[in-house]
Design a protein that fits this description.
heterodimer, A: 149 residues, alpha+beta, five-stranded antiparallel beta sheet, five-stranded mixed beta sheet, 4 helices, 24% helix, globular, B: 319 residues, alpha/beta, Alpha-Beta Plaits, Rossmann fold, nine-stranded mixed beta sheet, four-stranded antiparallel beta sheet, 15 strands
Chain lengths: 149, 319
């Protein structure tokens, strides 16, 4: 696995951006870059050195969970808002039943929202992130997490 | 057409279930689909909150007061209905047969521990271990095939598991390497590949696929996996050995092999299902009387599938 442990000064910058975007003030994870601008979060007890040692004797495929992607702005993964739900305070868009019906099936939704990356909330559940141009939120629900009918 | 037990399988099951009524109950239940159990993923939602949510759409029971995470959906469901619910999509529950939850209940993973799940895919037990660890400690989840790793990874992601490291290695070789490099675990789950006799209710294919020749080859592989796993366990550490088969060659014989060749002891475990003690002889072989501490789970006893669980404690480190 091609990985790079994110150093503390870089993590600080990511956290500052996430604070600007979503109000996130704490990320209790070791952050790992895996290429394609994707960053994974690991909360386990092994240190970087121990993980590197592990990599010498085992074929490591994945560490922790996919957390966010850098696309100019940071876009949180489908699951990460559910892991840090109390931390997310800004750029939350509440959707109604009809919008939820479309969103969770993979469709873009028409709704006025702040431009940029927004977190979608329905009935108290975070259901992923989308990119808003102010009038439309473009859908990023992964295919394997969409409702089928 | 209703699938039938192959004659050799029937004969073996009649030897295991000596009372006629017991065998008849087994024969009847294996043709009925299993009930719908889900396990609350406490990494994302509390049992109380999930129970309230699911109760709005289905008739839900929490049959075991000591394990409120286990929920039984009483309704007749459409195919795919459980998997296509928003609570499933969000990772609030895992669809898992109740007897397969017993291995992790026996393992009792705790926050902060270093745990190995050697044959982890598809991840039902891995995510259950992760829930017990509550995001701290480290969980190494291994499987050998890339397609199985992909399923495991998707389930870990959906359940919000952040303390896992997924590896792709042959289980015997990996455990051997851990032992050689002095990487020792607090707990190991060895849910071994097996002939799957316990899965007849959910997989009718098992009726056709069952073959007496594979039992011995599975048994040999399971002994190898267990022997190597013990080398990767800390002194005082716990290893849970489980299968979803009734075949004594793959169950008590494997545990007996460990008892006779390694400094291990079997521990008593309290499980929330009706279980029967391990058997002490089979096919002219006699096992240690200790194997009575193993748990046999028959489908007719709990309206579940079939399973086998044993918890071993390593008394001193194996070099």
């Amino acid at each position: 696995m091609n990985i790079r442990f994110i150093k503390s000064n870089e993590k600080r910058k990511i956290l500052e951006s996430l604070n600007d975007q979503f109000g996130i003030s704490e990320l209790p994870y070791l952050l790992i870059s895996t290429g394609n601008e994707r960053i994974r979060a690991f909360s386990g007890s092994l240190s970087k050195e121990e993980i590197e040692e592990l990599g010498k004797i085992a074929r490591v495929e994945l560490i922790g969970t996919y957390f966010l992607k850098e696309e100019g702005l940071y876009r949180l993964s489908f699951d990460s808002p559910l892991l840090i739900k109390d931390e997310i305070k800004k750029n939350i868009v509440e959707i109604n039943d009809e919008q939820f019906h479309d969103w969770i099936r993979g469709f873009d939704i028409q709704i006025e929202a702040p431009q940029g990356v927004v977190v979608i909330r329905y009935n108290g559940d975070f259901i992923g992130c989308g990119k808003s141009n102010g009038k439309t939120i473009y859908n990023y629900v992964p295919k394997d997490r969409r409702l089928k009918k | 057409m209703k699938p039938e037990m192959k004659p050799a399988f029937r004969e073996r099951m009649e030897k295991l279930l000596t009372e006629k009524k017991d065998f008849e109950a087994f024969e009847k239940i294996i043709h009925i689909p299993p009930r719908n159990y889900v396990r609350c993923n406490t990494l994302k939602i509390s049992e109380k909150e999930l129970f309230e949510r699911l109760s709005k759409k289905w008739t839900v029971e929490q049959p075991f007061p000591e394990h409120p995470e286990i929920m039984l959906i009483q309704n007749e469901l459409q195919p795919g209905e459980l998997g296509n619910a928003i609570e499933h999509v969000l990772g609030y529950y895992y669809i898992q047969e109740v007897c397969s939850m017993m291995s992790v209940i026996a393992l009792k993973p705790e926050p902060g521990e270093f745990v190995l799940d050697l044959c982890a895919s598809p991840g039902s037990k891995t995510t259950q271990i992760a829930a017990g660890m509550q995001g701290s400690g480290t969980l190494i989840a291994n499987d050998v095939r890339m397609d199985r790793i992909a399923i495991l990874a998707a389930n870990l992601e959906r359940c919000g598991v952040t303390n896992s490291i997924v590896t792709r290695n042959d289980g015997v070789q990996l455990a051997e390497k851990f032992g050689r490099n002095n990487i020792k675990f607090d707990k190991i789950l060895l849910d071994a590949p097996c002939s799957g006799e316990g899965t007849l209710r959910s997989s009718a294919r098992t009726f056709q696929m069952w073959n007496p020749k594979v039992l011995k080859s599975f048994s040999r592989m399971q002994k190898k996996l267990l022997a190597c796993s013990l080398k990767a366990l800390k002194a005082g550490g716990t290893l849970v050995y489980s299968t979803c088969t009734h075949a004594p060659e793959e169950d008590e014989e494997v545990v007996d092999f460990a008892l006779k060749n390694f400094p291990v002891e079997l521990e008593e475990v309290k499980l929330p299902l009706k279980t029967r003690p391990g058997i002490t002889s089979w096919d002219e072989k006699t096992f240690s009387p200790e194997v009575k501490k193993c748990h046999r789970i028959y489908p007719q006893d709990n309206d579940s599938e079939g399973f086998f669980v044993a918890r071993l404690r390593l008394k001193e480190e194996v070099k």
